[in-house]
């Protein structure tokens, strides 16, 4: 049985939840290819019920269960796909688990108080910056999104104290971003850095930092196109909070 249950666990399960657990144990050979929706359909329940039943049995959600099942299958394609899904799950979960609530609130308050928000980024990370910029503009923020290294160097030397610079960087090693952060700091501006490397020199020039988690496994090694999923998650949290705050204020 993939899910071990004793009398104590069984007593805590509803009739429907027990049916879900029994279905999982009876269909272990094909379960690695099923989704939580498939299991819910076969047991005449709901995805929420399936998830709740699994957790009551001491397994931390459906993804952990599927990962356990994958280790037993001989289908290499299924194994590979589940490893890939687990990579994204680890990144997303780690970003949230390591998030400091007071720190993120300080970042949000600093953004809301700014006369102008400048977002500096380079390379593929600029795609994250573009989305963040667009959403902040929709929320009536005065935003300037800069990718060009020469422009950001010049602009960072002419900032005002009531302006905020947000730097997005996966590895935190880009020289022009570090130089711009240093310039902004010297101008008395607040600098916010969202990065996935704790050793980045950017942190030295930042008032607030948010450290994301980047998985060590890189799919395409010959080019700098590593997933920016952690940065997307951090930006989404910022935007979603600002939306909620504005709605409550109205």
TrEMBL record:
Protein name per UniProt: SIS domain protein
One Pfam family linked to the record: HTH_6
Key word Glycoprotein present: no
Any single biological process term in GO: carbohydrate derivative metabolic process
PANTHER family tied to this protein: GLUCOKINASE (PTHR30514), RPIR-FAMILY TRANSCRIPTIONAL REGULATOR (PTHR30514:SF21)
CDD domains reported in the protein's UniProt record: SIS_RpiR (cd05013)
Species for this entry: Anaerostipes caccae (strain DSM 14662 / CCUG 47493 / JCM 13470 / NCIMB 13811 / L1-92)
Annotated ranges, domain SIS: 107-250
Matching InterPro entries: Homeodomain-like_sf (IPR009057), HTH_RpiR (IPR000281), RpiR-like (IPR047640), RpiR-like_SIS (IPR035472), SIS_dom (IPR001347), SIS_dom_sf (IPR046348), WH-like_DNA-bd_sf (IPR036388)
